From TrEMBL:
Keyword entries, A-Z: Signal
Name of the protein this chain belongs to: Lipoprotein
Lineage: Bacteria, Pseudomonadati, Pseudomonadota, Gammaproteobacteria, Lysobacterales
Leader peptide range in chain numbering: 1-23
Length: 123
């Protein structure tokens, strides 16, 4: 019974981490997250993709006068520290510092729970 419980807990934890399976996100490589997923950064901190807000982007297959934008919400948790909110925007603020790294927004898919594509850069 303990073995089954341990395996189930391991499966749940690995389902929460996205990116490179061998230990986290590699600097300079693109990675994608779905809403609710977490990624382990090279400094052992975590990045949680909380969702989007203020989404005024033009829906697919619709002709709009203005493309619109969206805020993409993340929670950055330093190893042993307190989480803080990081907000990127598809038009105005496409990058932000997360610990010693710079997080850059590359793409945000359309939809209610859009997948985000990012890259982590060394400062």
């Amino acid at each position: 019974m303990t073995r089954i419980l341990t395996l189930a807990m391991f499966a749940m934890l690995t389902g929460c981490v996205s990116g490179v399976a061998s230990g986290g996100i590699a600097p300079g490589q693109e990675f994608s997250l779905d809403v609710g997923q977490r990624a382990v950064l090279p400094d052992a901190s975590t990045l949680h993709y909380a969702g989007i807000s203020n989404d005024s982007r033009c829906p697919p297959n619709v002709q709009c006068i203005r493309a619109g934008d969206a805020d993409v919400l993340f929670d950055h948790m330093p190893a042993g520290g307190k989480a803080h909110r990081v907000v990127l925007n598809t038009e105005r603020t496409k990058s932000a510092d997360v610990g010693p790294w710079q997080l850059q927004l590359l793409a945000l898919q359309p939809g209610e729970r859009p997948r985000v594509t990012l890259v982590l850069q060394a400062p």
